[in-house]
């Protein structure tokens, strides 16, 4: 039974990804710690935060879907940032491939939740 946003698999997965990203950007070069790293930290926080906020407004279809849409957009944005980190040589390809798959999975789950919101 889903009682809170913490019971949603997509929330726990997006939260875990946020923790991984926060740890991973510590390996970036010093000059990226004021550009790409903070952007990735902010962006990685968006999906779990928007899931939580949207959950509070789930009785209002438009508001709930808006927050889930924002979370999906942030997953897409994270894909670009991960590819950037990979192509600039900050993270290895296998690590990036794993993150990309997980963000794509979260985005798909968010889309399913948005489309089937009344069943939750």
Walk me through what this model shows.
- This protein is mainly α.
- It has a single domain (5-119), classed as de novo design (two linked rop proteins) (Up-down Bundle), CATH 1.20.1440.
- Helix content is 72%, strand content 0%.
- It is built from four helices and no strands.
- The mean pLDDT is 95.
Mean pLDDT reading: 95
Strand content: under 5%
End-to-end gap? 9 Å
The radius of gyration computed from the alpha-carbon positions, rounded to a whole number of angstroms, is 15 Å
Feature tags:
single chain; 120 residues; mainly alpha; de novo design (two linked rop proteins); 72% helix; elongated
Summarize the structure.
The protein has 120 residues and is mostly helical.
Q: How do the helices and strands line up, and which of them pair or pack?
A:
Elements: H1 9-24, H2 36-56, H3 61-87, H4 93-115
């Amino acid at each position: 039974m889903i009682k809170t946003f913490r019971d949603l698999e997509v929330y726990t997965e997006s939260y875990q990804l946020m923790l991984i990203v926060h740890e991973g950007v510590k390996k970036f070069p010093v000059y990226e710690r004021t550009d790409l790293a903070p952007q990735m930290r902010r962006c990685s926080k968006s999906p779990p935060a928007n899931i939580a906020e949207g959950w509070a407004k789930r009785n209002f279809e438009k508001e709930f879907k808006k927050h889930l849409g924002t979370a999906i957009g942030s997953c897409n944005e994270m894909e670009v940032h991960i590819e950037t980190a990979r192509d600039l040589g900050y993270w290895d390809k296998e690590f990036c491939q794993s993150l990309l798959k997980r963000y794509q999975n979260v985005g798909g789950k968010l889309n399913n939740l948005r489309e089937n919101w009344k069943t939750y």
